[in-house]
Design brief:
The protein is 21% helix and 36% strand. It has 236 residues and is α/β, with parallel strands linked by helices. The chain has two domains: 7-100, Beta Barrel (Elongation Factor Tu (Ef-tu), domain 3); 112-234, 3-Layer(aba) Sandwich (Rossmann fold), CATH 3.40.50.80.
């Protein structure tokens, strides 16, 4: 699907997820329903010193039939756009286009491994939420990498989903863990094959910074994994 007419998003609320990372809830003004597919993004527009700038942000929420959509954003040092959004107050509005994008679930959906770092978890949260809400019977695994325990985004939510759905498991791994951390350590690349367990009939969705995405793809391809089963999106 592709919608290109400029719309207006009104901020409903935002709150901190981790240091310098916030969760945003927007509504599409004047629309009863915003139609999108899990994994897609919206493009925001704003004038900065007379120059119109555009930034794309992945939707972090699963479609639920209303006009709301959620985002998960980090504040970029010196970044005019992210700092503007972080300062927005409920009720303020911003023009946007979309939803757009092709980081989508493969059809038919089959057992899947989702690999994310940082705010790259946003579109994957949308995908997982969508599939679990539809009670899809396929096996879903989320491998999420970050530095510290307090930056495991949506930790309680994913743990609750794992407890409520036997076909979903959550595996956070920390690259700079504290002595009290008893979970996985290191980068997501190091744990790929633990979760694949030798299976080649799994789709792998990867989202995050370019270096991580490229290394995951390379490791999978070198192992003989089907390239068509690797769906990815880079954030830089």
């Amino acid at each position: 699907m592709r919608e290109t007419a400029t719309k207006t998003a009104r901020l409903v609320e935002s709150f901190e997820l981790a240091p310098e990372i916030r969760h945003f809830v927007f509504e599409a003004r004047g629309q009863e329903r915003l139609t999108y597919e899990p994994g897609q993004f919206v493009s925001f527009h704003h004038q900065f010193e007379g120059e119109l700038r555009t930034r794309a942000y992945s939707i972090a929420s699963a479609p639920n039939g209303d006009n709301r959509f959620e985002l998960c954003l980090n504040r970029v040092p010196g970044g005019a756009f992210s700092n503007y959004l972080f300062q927005m107050q409920p009720g303020e509005e911003i023009p946007f286009d979309g939803p757009l994008g092709y980081f989508l679930l493969r059809q038919p959906v089959r057992d899947s491994l989702f690999v994310a770092t940082g705010t790259g978890v946003a579109p994957i949260r949308s995908m997982i939420g969508y599939l679990l809400r539809r009670r899809s019977p396929v096996r879903l695994q989320l491998l999420f990498g970050t530095r510290y325990e307090n930056t495991i985004l949506y930790k309680e939510e994913f743990e609750r989903l794992a407890a409520d759905h036997e076909n979903f498991s959550f595996h956070p791994t920390l690259s700079r863990s504290s002595e009290g951390w008893s979970g996985w350590q290191g980068h997501v690349q190091e744990h790929l094959f633990e979760l694949l367990a030798g299976r080649g009939d799994i789709d792998v969705y990867v989202c995050g910074l370019k270096a991580m995405v490229n290394e995951v793809r390379q490791r999978l391809k070198q192992s003989g994994f089907d390239r068509r089963a690797i769906v990815y999106e880079k954030y830089d």
